Amino acid sequence: MNLQPLLLRKDQERRLLAGHCWIYSNEVNTQTTPLKAFTPGQPVEILSDHDRWIGRGYVNPHSLICARIVTRNRALPLTPALWLQRIHDALALRERLYQRPFYRLIFGESDGLPGLIVDRYDQLLVVQITTAGMERVRGELLAALEQVLRPQAIVLRNDSAVRELEGLERTVETVLGSPADSLILLEQELAFEVAPLSGQKTGWFFDQAENRRRLARYGVGEKVLDVCSYVGAWGLRAAALGANSVTCVDSSAAAVERITANAARNQLDKRVHSIHGDAFDVLRDLRDQGHRFDTVILDPPAFIKRRKDEKEGTQAYQRLNRLGIELLEPGGLLVTSSCSFHMDRETFLRGVQLAARRAGRSVQLLETGQQGPDHPVHPAIAETAYLKTCFLRVLPDF
Predict the structure, then answer these.
(1) What gap in Å lies between CA 246 and CA 261, rounded to an integer?
(2) Which of 118, 189, 250, 394 could cysteine-pair with 106, CB 3.0–4.6 Å?
(3) How many domains does one find in the chain?
(4) CA 244, 371, 293: angle at the middle one, nearest 5?
(5) Which entry of 21, 66, 248, 339 is annotated as an active-site residue?
């Protein structure tokens, strides 16, 4: 089948030839191939200004990222056979990495399926479709997932705000089976109840699993503070590692209830308690009351979701880290994260350093982590390396 061409402006193919797969609307030759001539999600052939074939993908004339490359192999048409192959390839990696079927199965561009996220909870798949191109072939994708994995249930968590940028509705629906909004997930020896239909993202944050595993090498001490806890993954890990007192903080009442239930499920309820409230307010109150901790864990949501949020978001990260540092005992451990892909690792670390200086403390960087290997980084797409987790020792001022 011949696809309609999408022609680039002069010299706009260099980034794409280097491996990036996003095409911005200002990179398109709209005189020859006007974007208004395309429908959202329409498959296209991408060509340079001198008709060099770049790849096949799909277009959305209403989005700033107006096209995404899916394949650079002319022998591969955009058909169900390609979706099957990409899913098999992604599964092969995860089965090499994990003994249990709990992981991110498809990570968008990094797995050759831009606009598709799939998290696997054993026999349940939670799917997020974030682009018009993937929405157009939704039926084919779901059929391919069923064929490869034979799940008992599939839930579409299409409630991400990013869908609005693509002109798509936000919905949550079950397309296979009748899953309950509660399941038990295993991470190392701990069991967690999560909510795949109503919880944050798809119900769990697989991306931090490897960083939570790293916590063991440093020792957590007697008292631990876990801020933006969600359902307690970091806090319960700290308790399992020997902390006698773990305080979990989250702004969601439902999350706090699950922290309590998960602590009891793992026989850690005598050492784990929760505070429901805004992270900044709770940290200030704890500081003013004279509380101190051996380990402080900060794992907030993205403060920088768009470029225009950069200044305000950077300040928020610095405030949060300063408050966390002020609550640490001398020599204490700070585990601090940013999942804002608009903030690179160096900028984040500089912000933590500035927060430490303002708190009158010095920090030693012990290790940096990123998202786990079930969220592989595409080397040409910096945005796929979104998670930064720093392990730092905090000392009195040198």
Answers:
(1) 15
(2) 118
(3) 3
(4) 25
(5) 339
Token digits of residue 387: 């998670």
The residue ranges of DSSP E strands in the chain, in sequence order, are 4-7, 22-24, 42-47, 53-59, 65-71, 102-107, 116-121, 124-129, 153-158, 171-176, 183-187, 190-194, 223-227, 245-250, 272-276, 293-298, 328-338, 361-369, 388-396
Q: Note whether 67 and 202 are same-domain residues.
A: no
Distances (CA, A) of 389 to 256, 300, 392: 23, 11, 10
Q: Where are the beta strands (DSSP E) in 1-131?
A: 4-7, 22-24, 42-47, 53-59, 65-71, 102-107, 116-121, 124-129
| Domain assignment of residue 43, given as a range | 4-71
Tokens of 156: 């579409």
User: Do both 141 and 273 map to the same domain?
Assistant: no
- The verdict on 382 and 344 lying in the same domain is yes
> Is 339 one of the annotated active-site residues of the chain?
yes
Rounding to the nearest 10 degrees, give the CA dihedral for residues 7, 12, 15, 21: -30
Residue where one domain finishes, among candidates 45, 71, 97: 71
Question: What share of the chain in percent tops pLDDT 70?
Answer: 100
Tokens of 135: 């929405």
Note the pTM of the prediction, 2 decimals: 0.94
- The per-residue pLDDT for range 120-174, each reduced to its tens digit, is 999 999 999 999 999 999 999 999 999 999 999 999 999 998 899 899 999 999 9
- Spatial distance between the Cα atoms of 83 and 81, rounded to a whole number of angstroms: 6
User: 201 pLDDT exceeds 90?
Assistant: no
Domain co-membership, 266 together with 382: yes
Q: Which residues contact 25 (CB under 8 A, 6 or more apart)?
A: 35, 61, 63, 64, 66
Q: Give the DSSP letter string of 46-77.
A: EE-TT--EEEEEEE-TTSSEEEEEEE--TT--
